[in-house]
Amino acid sequence: MQNKVLNVDGVKVKLQIWDTAGQERFRSVTHAYYRDAHALLLLYDITNKTSFDNIQAWLTEIHEYAQKDVVIMLLGNKVDSTHERVVKIEDGERLAKEYGVPFMETSAKSGLNVELAFTAIGKELKHRSMKLPNEPKFKLHDYVKKEVKGSGCCKS
Ligand SMILES: Nc1nc2c(ncn2[C@@H]2O[C@H](COP(=O)(O)OP(=O)(O)OP(=O)(O)O)[C@@H](O)[C@H]2O)c(=O)[nH]1
């Protein structure tokens, strides 16, 4: 478990981050982890088709076990591994659209969009918790679309 403190528009937001194992054999353990989570980052590896195929099962499971209003974000990681890519950006986009979740490609190695993923979650959770009546609603999808950076390889 790791803590990350963000400054979201002058407000401190503390994220408590749990990295759960993706493997099937740990599923029963992971339920307990995400049952009470406010946000879930679902990562697949763009160089590993199986990891992408597993996302569908995760989304179905989350629907069953997670909080109804949980913030979900789909991330296609390892975008730095250009030559090993087997999952197209369009495939990620299509899946995200199907489930109505924001999507971006990331690289834990180069750092591409990593801060953005956490900031976006932080902003969404802050807006939800503050409930300021005069403040316009934070639009997570729009924010991600506006701020996301391409890998510089595959997008026109
Ligand atoms: N090139 C590249 N390698 C990465 C990236 N992110 C992770 N890796 C590598 O991928 C491997 C697996 O990373 P982990 O963070 O252990 O993956 P995980 O899915 O959490 O693994 P489990 O905890 O076993 O489920 C490691 O060797 C990482 O260095 C990335 O963005 N780019």
TrEMBL record:
<protein>
    <recommendedName>
        <fullName>Ras-related protein Rab-26</fullName>
    </recommendedName>
</protein>
<dbReference type="InterPro" id="IPR001806">
    <property type="entry name" value="Small_GTPase"/>
</dbReference>
<dbReference type="Pfam" id="PF00071">
    <property type="entry name" value="Ras"/>
</dbReference>
<dbReference type="GO" id="GO:0003924">
    <property type="term" value="F:GTPase activity"/>
</dbReference>
<dbReference type="InterPro" id="IPR005225">
    <property type="entry name" value="Small_GTP-bd"/>
</dbReference>
<keyword id="KW-0547">Nucleotide-binding</keyword>
<comment type="similarity">
    <text>Belongs to the small GTPase superfamily. Rab family.</text>
</comment>
<dbReference type="InterPro" id="IPR027417">
    <property type="entry name" value="P-loop_NTPase"/>
</dbReference>
<dbReference type="GO" id="GO:0005525">
    <property type="term" value="F:GTP binding"/>
</dbReference>
<keyword id="KW-0342">GTP-binding</keyword>
<keyword id="KW-0449">Lipoprotein</keyword>
